[in-house]
């Protein structure tokens, strides 16, 4: 799977991937592999993560990589990222993202991103999640970078799974990367 994903990123930088993970151990393994792959090709790696998981990532990075390699990884607090406007507002999230990646764009540095999308419960109106994913899908194309959106599988109701399959052209399963048969091309940049 690792070689398949690396080849896809080499052939096509604009890659938006859904990862519905099952358990924190699998999640951390995939995330660390993604960071490792990014570092190995010299990409900047933007990780949107909660504080608790971020502390564990920092420990793993220090144990595995040099200071120079660790500098390639930027961990952004997911609470600040998703709620920068005081509520979950997809255009504000997009602006926060643009501001975060602006230094990479200005220096023409290749980057990749991993976004841990967490919901205490999926009470947000579904259209907000769908709007967000459509904006993100367009941003992946505009800025030409790979992005993995990680959602916890057991917290995803069927209607959310369907919508996510329609807004992500690729799906990462534990050991495979496949094209989504349900993906609907969007051109929604807000």
From TrEMBL:
The lineage of its organism: Bacteria, Bacillati, Bacillota, Bacilli, Bacillales. It comes from Planococcus dechangensis. Residues 16-169 form the MEDS domain. This is MEDS domain-containing protein.
């Amino acid at each position: 799977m690792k070689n398949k994903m690396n080849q896809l990123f080499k052939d096509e930088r604009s890659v938006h991937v859904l990862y519905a993970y099952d358990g924190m151990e699998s999640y951390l393994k995939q995330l660390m592999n993604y960071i490792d792959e990014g570092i190995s090709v010299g990409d900047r790696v933007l990780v949107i993560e909660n504080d608790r998981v971020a502390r564990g990532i920092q420990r793993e990075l220090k144990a595995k990589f040099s200071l120079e390699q660790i500098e390639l990884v930027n961990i952004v607090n997911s609470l600040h990222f998703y709620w920068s406007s005081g509520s979950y507002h997809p255009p504000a999230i997009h602006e926060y993202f643009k501001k975060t990646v602006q230094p990479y764009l200005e220096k023409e540095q290749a980057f990749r991103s991993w976004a841990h999308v967490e919901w205490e419960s999926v009470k947000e109106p579904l259209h907000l999640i769908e709007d967000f994913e459509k904006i993100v899908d367009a941003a992946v194309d505009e800025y030409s970078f790979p992005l993995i959106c990680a959602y916890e599988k057991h917290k995803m109701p069927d209607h959310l799974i369907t919508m996510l399959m329609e807004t992500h052209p690729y799906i990462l399963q534990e050991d495979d990367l496949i094209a989504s048969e349900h993906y609907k091309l969007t051109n929604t940049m807000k």
